[in-house]
Amino acid sequence: MAEHQDENLQLFDQLRVCIVCSKDLSPDVAHQLASTLEAHGGEPVVYEPPADFPDLGTFSHIMSTTIDFPQFDAAKDALIPVVKPQWMHASLAKGKLNNVRQYSPDPRLFLNDVVVTCGDIPEGDKDAIIGGVLAKGGLYNPRVTGLCTHLVDLTIDSDKAKQIKQRKLNVKIVLPHWFDDCLKLGRRIDERPYTLPDPEILRSAPDAPIRSAESRDIIGASTPEPKLPAPLASPSRPKLSVFQGRVVMLSSDLEIGSRLQNTISGIIEENGGKITSEVSKATTFICRYRDGFNYRVASRLNKDVGNLSWLYHLMTYDTWTSPFRRLLHYPVPKTPIPGFEKFKISLSNYVGEARSYLEHLITATGAECTKTLRQENTHLVTAHDNSEKCAAAREWGLEVVNHLWLEECYAQWRILPISDNRYHHFPRRTNLGEVVGQTRLDRSVLESMFFASAETPSAPPRKAMHKRDQNIASKKDLSSSMDIDETTVSDTANATPVGKSKKKTNLQTPSHLRLAPDGKENDTPSSTSSRKSKEAATARLHEIAPDIALYEKEKKRVGGVIYGGRKKTDEDRVILNNSKKRASIEAQSESEGEDNAESKRQKKSKPPITMHLLITGYQRWVNNIKKEDADKRQLRELGVMVVQDARKCSHLAAPSVLRTPKFVNGLAYGPMIIQIEFIDQCLKKNKLQDPSDFLLDDKEAEKKFGFSLEQAKANAKANKNKLLHGYHFYCDENIRGGFAAFQSIVNANGGECNLFRGRVSQQAPRGENERENGEVYLLSSASPDHQKLWPRFRQLVNNMGKTPRIVRVDWLLDMAMSQELRGAEDYELNEEMIEQSE
């Protein structure tokens, strides 16, 4: 026992942790956490704003309940993990350091406070939910404990649900649909419509009104040009701590009157801050537009750059937040997103501040926001698609999307493909107004578009200073996917979408804490070198900032800066840095020239994607992950994006006609079907080949399966994924190939497929998806294990008032591959047929 305690005492040995106090983490609690860390070998430091933040580089971890502290981005760049206090408690409970990613306070990991356990649900669904929760910051517990927050189940009669009721645990019992919708949207939505025992998504009529919802994320951030809140304008203003030690510069492009400017300056100075007119001395720069010399210098120097809306938010809540956190807390561009000036966008089903926020966001993109919907509109942005306005928009051929498309176009500053399924996803009983305003800005995108450092010189050239910064669009492919083993049947059509991240961040313990066998610390030269280059560049920019500012001032003098500036005899001439210093700067700039050139080569934007390729049956990658990754990277450089989701494919590559889930699901979307040889030739020649030269021709297989590939493709275009619309299937979980595979095929073709486990009290098919003749199908086989379920299936369907039909899976596969409806009679199974065959 004593030996075990000694190990616990050393659990946090070599860790130096900064505990950040905030609104949700009081100093008292922070000091309690510090005591626990210290008792187990750690070295804690408690940081209480607005004091100066300690040297970031000395810490192995930062403990915080929020990412709203100024050093968060710097910590992320330095690969220092930021964790919630639960990380420490969980590590102590397990006796080892837990994975830091599952305890990040980053709201982009939107399931980070979810601890899920699964009840009586299919194994395939269970695996998908667990993987999705872990990927988005949550945790999985195989047992019901007091730490669990959600039970995923189909009924409240399961063993785990009964445990929760008996022990009176505060655990929400939700349908799997909730996780599915959260992961499809990339946002956490309200659980109430999915909560058992009476989930709203199953009992509400299709045309029942959906309640409106407000988002807390846009409070105080719905407009880039707000009015000063009344309490701040009054003489008896509340005391603030957020400006302690801050030096604020108000830009001239704010165009505010002297009275308001004096009021703002007074608030800042009364509460420990300072006002400056020199950008090099400022810690915080407030401006209206992403334009101008001061904006670029402040941004390149990593100063806090925000607009008046952000400044008022700091004053109102007395809590520091990043100006990147909310789209309209950051200065707006002067020009529209390329192509957006042609758009006319209308809003539907958003109310209150969410509607105001989206109206201002549309204006900021450069599009026209119309109060009413007309046929000349191009887009309808809606919170749900259950309204007459949505029906009219679709009838007129307008694009109907949710607000995620608008927000992410603005954040990426480009028109994103509207074909992304997240932008068309509308959960049945959810008003997406509740997740408005959760999209963040990405500093790397802003840098490439608005303040790229390519023009930051060691001494400001005249032409460069007069020339506007070039917008360099960094076209990054941010899609990621999960590899699927072709030898096992898996759900591809309903694959859980992996969240997109603008910047890959490894939140593991820093490399300087991982010791090599010889006792030396492992180093990561590339990360260290990159970080040193950034620090050197920033330091050099700080050093020459006064010279640049002087140069800008000189430009405004009548006649400009001519022939080297003023004469030596001018009385008010200011002597710039001496020649030795300039020589040093030039030498330093020259020495880093090669590094910068190499960096530019590494950051070269990838070519545009010309095809989304779904691949099945490619033996070259079997059991060779390294080869697969390398080949996929090479293909991406040629403009080919390899996808795992059939919904996203424009081309399907296979060695022959196959009955794999990818091939069958892919057929439903009518892609061009090509030979595997296409991939080999692209890789071999390192050049994109013409896919029409590699069309798949497999007449033998077409004859065997009784269909034509060319005709199936034409049928798929006409069917528009509604071949099986109105068909309802049940499937045994022990069916050969797996339930998930057949569910994906049915769903890809517009049908509905549920798992059947022999219970006669299962949920009946939803009314809006029943066939007119009331038939319900069980996909089965002639095996004894399957036969014993048939009587129960018949009883279940008869209780519904429907007609049960038991069929072989070949019926579904033949229809899906030919994209034609076929009679079920030739595929039907019953006890008499099996007895006769025996």
- Which fold does the CATH topology of the largest domain refer to? Rossmann fold
CATH superfamily of the largest domain: BRCT domain
User: How would you characterize the largest beta sheet?
Assistant: 4 strands, parallel
What is the CATH first-level class name of the largest domain? Alpha Beta
User: What proportion of the residues form beta strands (DSSP E)?
Assistant: 5-15%
Give Rg in angstroms: 31 Å
Q: What's the arrangement of secondary structure elements?
A:
Layout: H1 2-9, E1 16-20, H2 27-39, E2 43-47, E3 61-63, H3 72-77, E4 82-83, H4 86-94, E5 115-118, H5 123-135, E6 139-140, E7 150-152, H6 159-167, E8 172-174, H7 176-185, H8 200-203, H9 230-233, E9 247-250, H10 258-270, E10 274-275, E11 284-286, H11 293-300, E12 304-306, H12 308-317, E13 344-348, H13 352-365, E14 368-370, E15 379-382, H14 388-395, E16 399-401, H15 403-412, H16 443-450, H17 462-466, H18 525-555, H19 579-591, H20 593-602, E17 611-615, H21 625-637, E18 640-643, E19 651-654, H22 661-667, E20 672-675, H23 677-685, H24 699-705, H25 709-719, E21 728-732, H26 739-748, E22 752-756, E23 775-780, H27 784-787, H28 790-800, E24 803-808, H29 809-818, H30 831-837
Helix pairs in contact: 5-7, 13-15
